[in-house]
Amino acid sequence: MSIEQPVVFVIDDDASAREGLEDLLQSVGLSVMSFGSAQEFFESQRPDAPGCIVLDVRLPGTSGLEFQNVLIEADIGLPVIFITGHGDIPMSVMAMKSGAIDFLTKPIRESSLLDAVNAGIQRDRARRQEVKLASELQQRYQLLTPREREVFTLIVSGRPNKQIATEIELDESTVKVHRSKIIKKMMATSIVDLARMADRLGVHAAISARSKPKD
Amino acid sequence: MHWSRKIDVFAMVLKWRSQRWFSAAVFVLGVIALVVLAYAFLLLRTNFATAGFSLLIVVVLISTLGSYVNSVLLAVVAMACLAYFFAQPIFSLRVEQEQDIAALSAFLITSIIITGLAAKVRRKSEEELRDTRAQLTRFARVAILGELTASIAHEINQPLAGVVSSGDACRRWLANQPPNIERANQSLERIIRDADRASGIIERVRDLVKNTSNQKGAVSVGEAVREVILLTRGEAELNRIRVDTKIADDLPLVWADRIQLQQVCLNLIINAIESVKDLSSGPRRLLVEVEKDQPDGVLLTFSDTGAGIDPEKAKYIFDALYTTKPEGMGLGLAISRSIVEAHGGRLWASLNVPRGTKFQFTIPQYHEKTA
Q1: For residues A94 and B175, which has the higher predicted lDDT (pLDDT)?
Q2: Neighbours of A180 (CB within 10 A)
Q3: Which of B139, B163, B178 is the last residue of a domain?
Q4: Per-residue pLDDT tens for B19-61?
Q5: How far is residue B17's CA from residue B5's CA, in Å, rounded to a whole number?
Q6: What is the DSSP string of B148-195?
Q7: How distant is the Cα of B195 from the closest Cα of chain A, in angstroms?
Q8: Would you call A16 and B164 a contact, using CB atoms and an 8 Å cutoff?
Q9: If residue B90 lies in a helix (H) or strand (E), which one and from where to where?
């Protein structure tokens, strides 16, 4: 897969601090978008690329922690690195608890900032990868016919073809055809792979009424 | 009586003394006292010397008020009384005996010397009063700055954060192969700009601490207020208070001591922050408005959404040493009011709608002739 150019979003109401950060991040080859307020950030057109947010906790209007909540509500998964001009410990504890990458005090050490930003970008890449994979799987799963989905569920629950055939009253050979179609459509390499996909999709074998042995 | 009010009464008397009607009244009273006393001594049939010394006492007392004109005139009047009532021929103003000449000289010399000494003492006490007031004002200013330490540190820290990041960036632009000179230059320019900004803040703080008194000049109120808001911004931020400013564009210059003007603003802003700070609910806001006052001058308004003032206590808030804050000294508003009044303005408080307090003061406009 192609590695997209990551973007760092700097949000700080103080022009000196903001421009300094922007410059530093650009000097290591990162793309930077900077904003003077949280509102500007939310109103902006952001590129669909991995990245992270570097945010001053004390923004006029909203506090950094409120901002984090809005991010979650708006379903923006970008990781956040908090920065502060006041060495304020209770705030940093709260920020870290709510999942911040790091909490840095101004003036910021170059190495800690770059480490945090890299960690943030990596985390976002992994998250985006995860999201992408999940949506691809979902698409593939949508291609299955209702009958195939039924068979799929039973296969990943570990039932042999014969049992599946009995349970849903089909020929064993038909089940085999379904099975190979499912593996092809889901682009699975093995039954184990298929089981992993089922996990991701949240597909679990329901203990259906039909699983009861027939007379 | 409260010590601060004593100072005020003293100052009031000083003010009266410089007025013409006060001197005239003293003169008239002096003449009446001398004539009545001389006539009484005549009825008592005392001799020339006793009467002379008694009249001298009156002349000395009046001389202590420090007006040369009054002293000389009353010495002459005393001499005239003596000549009229006691020296032969009685009931005539003729001055021919040597004792009359000696008495006149004694009256004149004593009154002039006493007047001189009294004026010297008074000048000194006036100077001391002025110094004490200036020191008290400065002391209060330094005390407020003490409360703002965290805020000021934050305000200096911001540009320093910029300097550090830009410095790091500059080093990286130069380390690039080939070095990116253009970007490195841009970083350097920002470093200089941010360092200037930091030193500007330090300079403003130093001005506020400096031991200057009464250096009046033409002041742009808008700019002075903006500087104060900058110094208190961190404090407001720390307490999650939103500060809005509305500064009119067409403000006239005012004739004021810039530092003292800023002191009043600092005081009112800090008071507002303190009253909003501990609110558990509701809006946390401070609005600073600077507008033209009719017919001339500038009106400054500081409205907060804080707890407001208890109407029962409203009449005490401008008294020295009255405070509602556990660590307050109760000097802020008293000094603010005396500063504003010394500038010919007015400072008052009212309720803010829907909640909180509104402090307002006016400063008269600068006219060419005021200078």
Answers
A1: B175
A2: 9
A3: B139
A4: 778 888 888 998 998 889 888 888 888 887 888 888 888 888 8
A5: 18
A6: THHHHHHHHHHHHHHHHHHHHHHHHHHHSSS--HHHHHHHHHHHHHHH
A7: 10
A8: no
A9: none
Residues A52 and A124 placed together within one structural domain of the fold: yes
**Encoding tokens for residue B303?**
């409205």
Its pTM stands at 0.69
Residue among B164, B197, B242 whose CB faces A107 most closely: B164
Q: Under a CB-based contact definition with an 8 Å cutoff, are residues B92 and B84 in contact?
A: yes
- Cβ of residue A36 closer than 8 Å to a chain B Cβ: no
Q: Are B183 and A23 within 8 A, CB to CB?
A: yes
Residue range(s) defining the domain that contains residue A110: 7-135
Q: CATH number of the domain that A190 lies in?
A: 1.10.10.10
Residue B321 has pLDDT above 70, yes or no: no
Pick the last residue of a domain from A135, A152, A177.
A135
CA-nearest residue to B156 within chain A is A85
- b/e per residue, A59-86, with b = 16+ CB within 10 A? bbebbbbebbeebeeeeeebbbbbbbbb
- Is A11 in the same domain as A113? yes
Token output for B151: 């805020």
Listed residue (B216, B217, B212, B219) closest to B134, CA to CA: B212
